[in-house]
Amino acid sequence: xxxxxxxxxxxxxxxxxxxxxxxxxxxxxxxxxxxxxxxxxxxxxxxxxxxxxxxxxxxxxxxxxxxxxxxxxxxxxxxxxxxxxxxxxxxxxxxxxxxxxxxxxxxxxxxxxxxxxxxxxxxxxxxx
Length: 128
Hints:
By secondary structure, this protein is mainly alpha-helical. The protein is built from 6 helices and no strands. It has helices spanning 8-31, 35-46, 48-60, 66-77, 89-107, 111-126. Helix 1 (8-31) packs across helix 2, helix 1 (8-31) crosses helix 5 and helix 3 crosses helix 5 (89-107).
């Protein structure tokens, strides 16, 4: 199956889970805190606003390959039938674009590139 042919919102669905799991592992090992504190910290990494800001930073750095940039744009431009929660539609779409490329790299088994992206996301948020 050609992963690029999947619906970009399907890729974003997968990417959301992959990013959430990576962030949870990172903060659990870093903070060793109570679940409520872990949840509060994780929001700074996985909220739509944070993801949109991270995407903009990565674009400014020209971090993505051409193929990844295409996936991000497809994810960002996809028409969702669900309403964005706690954010505006542009922010929601940018976060969907970032999640789509994460989902693509995961499903395409590009483990090294995926790990680099996830680490870059954490680093970018930490530098804010």
